[in-house]
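job 3f2a | input accepted
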Amino acid sequence: MAASYVVNAMDRQVFPVVLPNIRSDLGFSLAQGGLLATIFTLGIGIAGVPSGYLLDRISRKTVMLIGILLYSAFTILTAHAFGFADMFGYRALSGVGEAMQNAALFSAVGAYFFANRALAVGSLNFAYGLGGFIGPLLGSHLATSTGAWQAPFYLFGAIGLGFVVLIAVVVKRKFTEQVDVPVSAAGSRDFDHVPANLFNRNMLLLGVAAVVVGVAMYGYIGLYPTFLREQLGFSTGQAGFAASMFGLGALCGIPAGWIGDRFNQRNVMIGSLLVGCVVGWLLFNGPTSVGLQDLLSFAEGAVASGFLFVNIYSAMQRAARPHMIGRASGLYVASFYVPAAVAGYLFSELVGWVGWGGAALWQLTVLPVVAVVALLFVDPRRFNNATPARTAVPVEPR
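job 3f2a | predicted structure (398 res):
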């Protein structure tokens, strides 16, 4: 299941690397290219909440398989696009499949490993990081060696279709359909301290943080390779390697999840956002050498994907009662990915107004401060993994 998520990440991360080739071939503007680079997140976001409700009604394994089948098919169709409109459709619809896989996969793993939910989510993000590292490197190599930007889309789509068969045969439902209701030594668990309403204060505040991180992260993902090639003069291979360092940074999801499980998760997220503000500014305003850009891209992956994606996702699952885990996952997917759909377009518009450095200042540095403020009002004592406060029962004097 984690290996299938590697392919998911490869599909997502290869497009920005070959975007200059696509723009040259099909005549897209920078704004059109920026929109196409992130529009798949619109499909992910729109399908997120319906996928969450679907998970409460049919098996997670079935939802996962349908999702992988969809995004693999539309990845292959992307290679056949001949204009902006049809490529827009293929990219957006591939996101619908990714949403179904994402919600089902993270719900299954989050439920099975309830006690170490953030670490489990971090393990899946480790898989995403591998795909994010391999995808740009392999994609740029295939595009350069074959002279065709379509080549990586054919390969990655075919691998995804293979995983549909593999998961259907190998993965057992006793793993994917685990009921997320942990028990104490006494045989029960009290969740009265967790709000009964899905749309509670913690959930909404965490949703704001998810929106902000999605817009900031995908602004970077969508146009960073274009910035390197057109502004700093990097070669296709150099830009591909720098972009892949984001995926390498995402491998930090495992230690990030471990930290989120053992320390105050709200403070972990706030600290990560503050570090991310600095890294985001330096990416587009700091050093221009190949080595330092590689290092900064790694840091962006570690902070945005490793620490923030993992801990906000697991925190939103913890902000709901156990029987709502599917809907909480769907809500996270919608919150994170719907606004991210316009992140590349927004970043390109800001570049036109204030240049690359100014765009990074507003979208990658100032905007995350909004999430910091929101998280200050999150109450971890209302999470479903918190120990509920017990009211002392008065004892009758003898």
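job 3f2a | Residues 183-188, 390-398 have pLDDT under 50 and may be disordered.
job 3f2a | closed
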